[in-house]
Write a structure and sequence with these properties.
With 317 residues, this protein is of the alpha/beta class. 39% of the residues lie in helices and 21% in strands. It folds into 2 domains: 3-117 and 303-316, Nucleotidyltransferase, domain 5 (2-Layer Sandwich), CATH 3.30.420.40; 125-298, Nucleotidyltransferase, domain 5 (2-Layer Sandwich), CATH 3.30.420.40.
Length: 317
């Protein structure tokens, strides 16, 4: 019996988990990401948490896997962060090997999420899926023929950076009009704050759920208010859902997967988000171009990338 360590580095939080060789989660830590601490802070915390997991393991730890919230050059095993400094083309797998003495495989969080759901979640038993993570940003991962499809430059599945508009705010990637700027967690929170400026009387519940400050409205507050029937929050979520549906129509028509799986923190909204996405998909559908692709929520919740990281580790264990 051997165990593996899985790491999920996100823009808002990071997790380190201990898994057995069957993919069962044995132990996990969950902390906020200190963005201003940059790479050095994160590497120190990863080293400490991974060492802690090794100490707690009843069996030898044979390998590590990392899900990283940013572009990953899979062939060279290098990462870049759009949210924190110091990560430009950083050889994370090599660092893992040198710091912990364990072989490691790294992929971006969307590919890891797709792999996690395929191996252990809502993708079990099918051959093709598109996994979309709606969190601080938006990412996508593709499973085709039972394998992760990464593309020539490890860029396949970057749905968050599909240009869906000729205008809009500047995206973290440096372009304008990206899907991520319309329906990510960050975008939803920004819409709430914009409502607070234009119509402060309409956002009282969102402000209350955000600790009393309109400037601190969060996507979680918008989602919760929408679940309670708040008019302004509901309009924000429905707008985000329609943008997402437009992108999904494109994905379905190009890839035509068995299943589209929505994961990430924003999908904790459940039916509050899923219902208007399905409604918009129906409105945008063509009567002559039919599809049977299912739209479901991630079975592993926000832990899909962590399970995917465990699957990566098991591949090199």
């Amino acid at each position: 019996m051997n165990n593996v360590i899985a790491v999920d580095v996100g823009g808002s939080r990071f997790r380190v988990g201990l898994f057995d060789q069957e993919g069962h989660r044995l132990l996990v830590s969950d902390e906020e990401t200190f963005r201003s601490g940059g790479r050095d802070w994160m590497l120190q915390r990863l080293r400490e948490q991974c060492q802690f997991m090794r100490q707690k393991s009843d069996y030898p730890v044979q390998a590590g896997g990392v899900s990283f919230g940013g572009p990953v050059d899979f062939e060279r095993q290098r990462v870049t962060s759009l949210h924190a400094p110091g990560w430009e083309s950083f050889p994370l797998a090599q660092w893992f090997k040198e710091a912990l003495g364990l072989p490691c495989r790294v992929d971006n969080d969307a590919n890891a999420g797709a792999l996690g759901e395929y191996r252990f979640g809502a993708g079990r038993g099918i051959q093709s899926l598109v996994y979309i993570t709606l969190s601080t940003g938006i990412g996508g991962g593709l499973i085709c023929g039972g394998k992760v499809f990464r593309g020539k430059d490890s860029m396949a599945g970057e749905i968050g950076h599909l240009p869906v508009s000729d205008s809009g705010v500047l995206c973290a990637c440096g372009a304008r009009g990206c899907l991520e700027t319309f329906c990510s967690g960050s975008a939803i929170a920004q819409r709430g704050r914009e409502w607070a400026v234009r119509r402060p009387e309409a956002v009282a519940r969102m402000v209350e759920l955000s600790g009393g400050s309109a400037a601190d409205i969060t996507s979680k507050a918008v989602v919760q208010a929408a679940a309670e029937g708040d008019m302004a929050a509901t309009r924000i979520i429905r707008e985000a859902a329609r943008w997402l549906a437009r992108a999904l129509v494109t994905v379905i028509r190009i890839v035509n997967p068995d299943r589209v799986i929505l994961g990430g923190g924003v999908t904790q909204a459940g039916s509050v988000l899923l219902d208007p996405v399905r409604e918009s998909l129906d409105e945008l559908a063509s009567p002559s171009i039919r599809h049977s692709t299912e739209l479901v929520l991630a079975e592993l919740g926000t832990n899909s990338p962590l399970y995917g990281a465990a699957a990566l580790a098991l591949e090199v264990a």
